[in-house]
Amino acid sequence: MGPIVSMEDISLRYHSISGETLAVSHLDLSVESGEFISVVGPSGCGKSTILSMLAGLLPPSAGDLKINGHIGYMLQKDHLLHWRNIRNNALLGLEIQKKLTPENIEYVDFLLDQYGLSEFKDHYPWQLSGGMRQRVALIRTLAVKPDILLLDEPFSALDYQTRLSVSDEIGLIIRREQKTAILVTHDISEAISLADRVIVLTKRPATVKTIFPILLSVENYTPMKAREAPEFKDYFNAIWKELDVHV
Ligand code: ADP
Ligand code: MG
């Protein structure tokens, strides 16, 4: 069947009145079904641009992009609507896509129950913690049954403690629901703890600098447990060095 996502020699150039910006240049990346990929790179290098192309929001200026599945997109902000309760927020994606079938509604209720939100269905977003709101946003995204999840720094608005537990929970949900995921993050530990492979990008224009396959010698680890693996800090140091943040 081949990879679920394949990007070959992709470039993207923005055109604006102030001139042209080459954001992505000769990028090659393929992702297998069920893989969890983390993408790290300097700020402004083109990470969100890459996700926008994968989401079909921006056509590449050059290269070959193939996607064999439906995309779900989750952003840094949860974008919950404050006038809708949690259940109705979780149903929003289905509503927009006119897919409010009994089966799909049942799936949303199942996800809300499964992921600890059943007691909060009638609550409103402002009554929930940041972490719970991110979970609702994930369920809203999962509701439309995407094959591929794109996550653009989804935890960066959360404080450190919350961030740890929410990235742990969300990583486990994505694994359990057997999705392919591409996570953009600036947190190296988060990238390693969640991913099968960490992709380090160059500074703008983004291209793949180094790919780190992550193999940790702890059994059946959760993202949180991954941090205890003896290899963890070696990956951290190697990726840190590749990122070359001081240059
Ligand atoms: P990252 O997500 O890695 O921080 P982005 O993909 O958002 O980076 O942006 C990459 C580069 O493209 C940046 O220099 C940014 O200023 C530029 N850029 C992003 N969006 C646009 C746009 N709509 N028009 C022109 N330039 C843009
Ligand atoms: Mg970005």
Can I get a quick summary?
With 247 residues, the chain is α/β, with parallel strands linked by helices. The chain has helices at 47-54, 86-90, 92-96, 102-114, 130-143, 160-176, 188-194, 223-226, 232-243; strands at residues 5-16, 19-31, 36-40, 62-67, 71-74, 148-152, 180-184, 197-201, 208-213. The protein is built from 9 helices and 9 strands.
Structure in words:
With 247 residues, the protein is α/β, with parallel strands linked by helices. The protein folds into two domains: 1-69 and 147-247, Rossmann fold (3-Layer(aba) Sandwich); 80-145, no CATH class. Helices cover 34% and strands 25% of the residues. It contains nine helices and nine strands. The chain has helices at residues 47-54, 86-90, 92-96, 102-114, 130-143, 160-176, 188-194, 223-226, 232-243; strands spanning 5-16, 19-31, 36-40, 62-67, 71-74, 148-152, 180-184, 197-201, 208-213. The strands form two sheets. A six-stranded mixed sheet has the order 5-6-7-3-8-9, sandwiched between helices. A three-stranded antiparallel sheet has the order 2-1-4, with helices on one face. Helix 4 packs antiparallel against helix 5 and helix 7 (188-194) packs across helix 9. The longest helix has 17 residues, at 160-176. The mean pLDDT is 93. The protein binds adenosine-5'-diphosphate and magnesium ion. Adenosine-5'-diphosphate (ADP) is lined by residues 14, 16, 21, 23, 41, 43-49, 204. Magnesium ion binds at residues 47-48, 152.
Write the layout of secondary structure elements.
Layout: E1 5-16, E2 19-31, E3 36-40, H1 47-54, E4 62-67, E5 71-74, H2 86-90, H3 92-96, H4 102-114, H5 130-143, E6 148-152, H6 160-176, E7 180-184, H7 188-194, E8 197-201, E9 208-213, H8 223-226, H9 232-243
Parallel strand pairs: 3-7, 3-8, 5-6, 6-7
Antiparallel strand pairs: 1-2, 1-4, 8-9
The chain binds adenosine-5'-diphosphate and magnesium ion (MG).
